[in-house]
Write a structure and sequence with these properties.
The protein is of the alpha+beta class and about 290 residues long. It is built from 10 helices and 6 strands; from the N terminus they run H-E-E-H-H-H-H-H-E-H-H-E-H-E-E-H. Among the domains are: about 90 residues, no CATH class; about 100 residues, Chitinase A, domain 3, CATH 3.10.50. A hairpin with a 2-residue loop joins strand 5 and strand 6. The protein is elongated.
């Protein structure tokens, strides 16, 4: 929790950098869900205005909404007062204000156009097609869980196998005999896919059944291994619901690029020297 003074300063900075033309979401919200939270010279301030301002905050502040809510209400009141003071000073007809409003209108038109173009392209059918393509690239995979005892010589590995054949506990032997970093965990390597292990190790583990240990030592670039396969499982790919947000984001980005590419193709665009580099000089040839 931030001290109120520190938090207030941070909020003031965040608000100062955010657009001042925030509008309340009043029309679609019933009055009992959007109560009046303050009055400024007889004008109502609705809770939706406070929530809208909260959306401009950084996530760490949004997570403290209950604590900073009174401060947000006061800031909405302050901004309402500043707006009225500006109108009283004739700023509604000021040339700088009109220019900034024109830019804001342009941004809203641009964003709305792209949003609607994306929504027209990123349909439920398109999302299902994207998911099918995702499944083709992300099939179900087989994972294995194994323990191993890493030794320096083949003779040491053979001696360990004899002890295991005689009934010794694999995990206890791994703790006392393995030179690998997993020794402290009884040689447990957790679940892995074949491509996460060196080929010799993966092939040896794949040839076993759960519960079996190596009949002969397995040599890799790291030394000599005695392996015990603990489990094997098939992991299904993520469901549509699990990857829907990722797929929608990717499809939306692709749709925006497609729209912009189409717009560029139908327009006469000339990039002048000042647009090629920061100092206006021609960019060097690649």
């Amino acid at each position: 929790m931030f001290p109120i003074r520190t938090l207030g300063a941070a909020l003031a900075l965040a608000f100062a950098l955010s657009p001042l033309a925030a509008t309340a979401q009043q029309s679609a919200t019933p009055a009992d869900e959007n109560p009046v939270v303050a009055r400024v010279n007889g004008e109502d301030v609705l809770r939706s205005e406070v929530f809208e301002m909260a959306q401009s905050l950084l996530p760490q502040y949004q997570s403290q909404l209950a604590q900073i809510y009174p401060l947000l209400v006061q800031r909405v009141v302050d901004f309402r007062l500043a707006e009225r003071a500006g109108r009283a000073a004739g700023l509604a007809e000021d040339s700088e204000v009109e220019a900034r409003i024109a830019k804001a209108v342009g941004r809203v038109i641009r964003d709305t156009y792209l949003e609607r173009a994306v929504n027209a392209r990123v349909t439920d059918e398109r999302m299902q097609e994207s998911y099918k393509a995702f499944l083709a690239k992300t099939p179900a995979k087989t994972e294995q869980r194994a323990r191993h005892i890493l030794l320096k010589t083949e003779e040491e590995a053979k001696a360990v196998i004899k002890e295991l054949d005689a009934g010794a506990d694999f995990a206890e032997l791994a703790k006392t005999r393995s030179t690998g970093p997993s020794a402290a965990k009884g040689g447990d390597l957790g679940y892995f896919t074949d491509d996460q292990m060196v080929p010799e190790f993966a092939a040896a583990a794949t040839a076993m059944e759960p519960g079996q240990h190596s009949a002969v030592p397995v040599k890799t670039q790291f030394g000599w291994h005695v392996i015990k396969l603990e489990d094997r499982r098939v992991v299904a790919p993520p469901t549509f619901e699990e990857v829907a947000s990722q797929l929608r984001e990717e499809a939306s980005r692709a749709a925006v690029e497609d729209v912009l590419k189409t717009l560029r193709a139908g327009a006469q665009v000339e990039i002048l020297p000042a647009g090629l580099s920061i100092d206006g000089a021609a960019a060097p040839a690649q």
